[in-house]
Structure formats: C-alpha cells, structure tokens
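Help: read this over?
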Amino acid sequence: MRALIEHYISCVKCEDCLVYVELFANKHNLRDSRFTCHSDHGRFSTPDNKLIQTLGTPGTAGSGLIPLQFGNPADVDFSADLVFIADGDGGVNNRVDAVAFSGAEEWVAGSNRPGTQAGQFNVPHSVAYYATKDLVFVADRGNNRTQAFAAKTGKYIGEWTCMRPGSPWGIRTWTAQDLLFQADGHGQSISILDLSGTTSTSLGVCSILATVDIDPALCTSPHEIAVDQVYGEIYVACMGEHARVVRYKQECAEKPCNFRA
C-alpha cells in the first residue's frame, strides 16, 4: 500500500485541525452535529455552528464527575448512544469518559493520575469506537500502547504494544475493513493494524499490516487522524512547523485496498 498526498488545508490551532479532520472524514456519512474539544469542556454544535449542548464545566478544569469536569480533552468519538472522550493531553486528568448524549456519565477508565497498570493511562490522547465488536480503543501515548475497553461497560479487554518503540498519538477504525489506523507523532508514520481476529472479549494478536511513512516536509508530528469510512482515505492533523490537515489516498490494484492479500 502506498499513500499519495492529495492536498492539504492550512490551519492554526490543533483543535481547528481536529474539527476539519472530523468534518472531511465523514463527508460520506455526515452527522447531524459535530463535537469540538476545548481546554476544559466539549461542545456539540450543528454544521452551521449553532450550539446544542456543552459537556463539562467551561472555565473550570478539574476531575469532578458531578458536575462533570475535564482537564484537557484531546479527542472524541461516538457510538450510537455514547460519547467517548480522551481527557489527558497535559491537563489534570489521565482518563477516558463515556458520557450519554444526555450528559450523564456512564463509566470512567483511568483517573487524575498517570499509571502503567491495565486500565490506567499516561496521556490518553485519542479514542476510537469499533462498532463491529462494540469496543473503544484508547491511544495511551505516554505508555506506548493501545488499550481496549467494552464500550457499554468500560470493562478492560486488553492492550496492544506491537507498535513499539513507536507510540500511538491518534487512532481511528475503518469498521467495514476491520482495520485500526494509528498515527505516531514521534515516528512520523501511520500503522495499519488488523482487527479481524478481535472479539468483544479479546483483542487477539497485535499485527501491523502496513506502515505509511509521513514526509516531514509536508507534515510534522502527526497528531490526530480520521479515516473515510467508504474509501479509506486518511486525514492527518499535523502540528509544529506544518500545522495543517493532510489527506492521503490509497493506491492499489483494487478499491478498497486489500491489506491482507
């Protein structure tokens, strides 16, 4: 598999990049609302930026659950009835929150302290929902691993470390192809992992099917990632010198690419 640069969109702030990534990556499956991460809360809004709901306590960073507080949320993903929020990008927390659309907290993994044990995090930087097995994957960046949890209950399922010495910064699933994409900000690459052996109770073997090298002249510190659910195009939010969103297309004999051929 080769990934070719298609075009990029310049932007200034990381949270702007994240918004762009989500909007572009869902162009074939548009949602009625979008979610943006801020330093201590998250906002639901319509595509024309009309505020629907705020999760967290604007202006007050913290670890409280009633009322709900965030430290510095980095990423978000959705199931049909839950919002999964990675709250650990240098703030006071190292946790993942599963919140109902009503705003009620359903479960929490991790805490306000970093840790290395199962279910603990050191900078949980990204989350990805995998609908096929109803799992939530978490990029545990500081621990150089990806952890998985049952989406409805938060039960710990397992971890993958086959990307080491690399570290997952941003992660997304391609549900139809049973693939997990992981952006590595230090390694300047994207790893594509096989989810076909995963069950609702076991991750199975950690297997990297392909690696996409990111040209630092186009994108430095690939930070967050999104994947088009129809064509598998990859959208990468870049930081540092080249703060922009870069789109990569698949180039292979058939569409979508068969990574297991």
Q: What stands out?
A: The radius of gyration is 17 Å. The first helix runs from residue 14 to 25. The chain is about 5% helix and 45% strand.
